[in-house]
């Protein structure tokens, strides 16, 4: 399981380019222990896979026990996802990687702002988004993309202080305890 996790963590590095492989003898004792089940077939692994595993093991070995525990939990969660969900996540990750640096930073900043909101507000925003139809979501994305940076900042401030505005076609707040 650990070796599979290391492969998953290192997969993006493998997809980019094929670095030279790593000889079994060049691995540290800890790495050889991690990859024990690959010992007999190590030389037959593609060089890129070997290098990706070595890089992943370096990250793994530098983690604290708490970080390793969280990583195992994330891996178990990943493994429990249906294949279609994993594929969708891979595609989203690839789209993110292909973005220009300034777009990546904008997304990271939006995520940081979202995470800084109180849990109740984050939940409210999630429910509102999930309550929208695909068409409504796309309309919201399009409108956001058309805004100037100043308009976006003004919208952010309004949403943080007053909550999202009710637009025509957007779902209204659900009454407490009520269902649609």
Topology:
Layout: H1 2-16, H2 29-34, H3 47-62, H4 65-80, H5 83-98, H6 101-116, H7 119-130, H8 134-146, H9 149-162
Give a nutshell description of this structure.
By secondary structure, the chain is mainly α.
Could you characterize the architecture of this molecule?
α1 crosses α3. The protein is elongated. The longest helix has 16 residues. The protein has two domains: 79 residues, no CATH class; 60 residues, no CATH class. The chain has nine helices and no strands. By secondary structure, the chain is an all-alpha fold.
Range of strand content: under 5%
What is the string of helix and strand elements?
HHHHHHHHH
Low-confidence stretches: 167-180
Helical segment count: 9
The number of distinct β-strands equals 0
**Structure class:** mainly alpha
Main sheet attributes: strand count, strand direction, barrel closure: none
Name the shape in a single word.
elongated
> How many domains comprise the coordinates?
2
Instruction: Assign a percent range to the helix content.
Output: 55-70%
Distance between the termini: 43 Å
Mean pLDDT, nearest integer? 83
Radius of gyration: 22 Å
The assembly state of the depicted protein chains is single chain
């Amino acid at each position: 399981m650990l070796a599979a996790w290391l492969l998953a963590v290192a997969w993006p590095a493998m997809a980019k380019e094929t670095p030279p492989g790593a000889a079994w003898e060049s691995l540290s004792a800890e790495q050889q222990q991690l990859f024990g089940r690959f010992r007999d077939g190590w030389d037959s692994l593609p060089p890129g896979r070997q290098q990706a595993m070595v890089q992943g093991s370096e990250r793994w070995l530098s983690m604290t026990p708490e970080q390793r525990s969280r990583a195992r939990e994330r891996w178990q969660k990943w493994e429990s996802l249906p294949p279609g969900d994993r594929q969708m996540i891979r595609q989203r990750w690839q789209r993110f990687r292909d973005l220009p640096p300034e777009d990546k930073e904008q997304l990271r900043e939006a995520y940081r702002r979202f995470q800084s909101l109180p849990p109740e507000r984050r939940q409210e925003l999630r429910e509102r988004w999930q309550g929208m139809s695909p068409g409504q979501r796309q309309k919201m994305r399009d409108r956001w993309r058309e805004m100037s940076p100043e308009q976006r900042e003004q919208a952010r401030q309004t949403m943080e202080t007053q909550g999202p505005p009710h637009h025509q076609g957007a779902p209204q707040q659900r009454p407490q305890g009520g269902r649609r």
